Amino acid sequence: MFDQLKTVILLGILTGILLGIGYLIGPTALTIAFIIVIALNLIAYFFSDKIVLAMYRARPAPKAQFPKLHAMVEEIARKENLPKPKVYIIPTDTANAFATGRSPKHAVVAVTEGILRLLTERELKGVLAHELGHVKNRDILVATVAATIAGIISYIAQMAQFAAIFGGGRDENGGNALGLLVMAILAPIIAVIIQLAISRSREYLADETGAKTLKDADGLANALIKLEQSNRHNPLRFGSKAGASLFIVNPFTGRSFAMLFSTHPDMHSRIQRLKSLKF
C-alpha cells in the first residue's frame, strides 16, 4: 500500500511540474510537446516487448526443453490469478530476469541461461514471482505514464530555453525569462529523479507481491544477494543500458553510482524489507 501511494504522489508531482512549466511557456508549446511525446510513447507501449526481447537477443523457451521453468511460471501465474505469460530465454551467462508486455494478456517473462544455473529452485521461484508481480501491478503501464510525463517535461523545457533566451514566454516584457530559464534547467533533472524514484518504488512493490504470493521472502532475498554479486562480477555485455530498469537487478554494473539516479533500490534496503514481511 505504501509503495502504491508513493507512486501516486510522485506521478502527481510530475504532473504538477508539467503544468507549471506548461503555464510558463504557454499552451501552444505544451500541446505540441504533448502530441509528439504521447505518439512516441504509444508506439513504445505497444511494441516495447518486441523491441526489448530483440535488444537482449531473447528467444522463446520451448516447454519440452525447459519443463521445470514452465511449470514454475504456470504455478505462480495461477496463484497470482494471471494468464500464463510467454517464457523466453536470454543466451548469456549473466544471471538475471525481466518481465515485459503492456498487459497481463500480453506479458512475457525472460530469464537468462545464467540464472537457471546459479539459483536453486526456491530462489528461482522467488525471482519469477517478483517478475509476475510486475505484471500483476501493471508496472509497464505505470512506467509508460511516468516516461510520457517526464518526456513532455524535457521536450517543453527545451522550448522554454529558447523562449527565455529570445524573450518569449507569457510575459511580453521579458520579466518571466529568468523563471523560464531556471525551470528549463531544473525541471528535466527533477523529472528524471522522480521517474527513477517511481521505478525503485515499483521494484519494492514487486518484491512484496512476489514474496506474499509464495508466502516466502527468504527465497527471493537469497536470490537477490546472489544476483547482485553475480552481475557485479559478470555484467551483461550486450544490449542497451536504457533497459536496465526492466531487470530484477542492474545487469550492467550490479550497483548504481547514486541512489537519486538509480533504477533499482539499494540492495540492503530490499533485503531488509523482505525480511520484515509477515505472512
Structural account:
It contains 9 helices and 4 strands; from the N terminus they run H-H-E-H-E-E-E-H-H-H-H-H-H. The two termini are 15 Å apart. The chain is elongated, with a radius of gyration of 21 Å. The protein is mainly alpha-helical. Helix 5 (121-136) crosses helix 7 (177-214).
Structural class: mainly alpha
* Radius of gyration, whole Å: 21 Å
Number of helices: 9
Sheet bearing the most strands, described?
4 strands, mixed
Q: What is the overall pLDDT average? A: 83
SSE arrangement, N to C: HHEHEEEHHHHHH
Index terms:
4-stranded mixed sheet; 279 residues; mainly alpha
Short description:
Helices cover 64% and strands 6% of the residues. The chain contains nine helices and four strands; from the N terminus they run H-H-E-H-E-E-E-H-H-H-H-H-H.
List the helices and strands and how they pair.
Layout: H1 2-25, H2 27-55, E1 59-60, H3 67-80, E2 86-90, E3 97-100, E4 108-112, H4 113-118, H5 121-136, H6 139-165, H7 177-214, H8 218-233, H9 267-275
Parallel strand pairs: 2-4
Antiparallel strand pairs: 1-2, 3-4
Helix pairs in contact: 1-6, 1-7, 2-6, 3-5, 5-7, 5-8, 6-7, 8-9
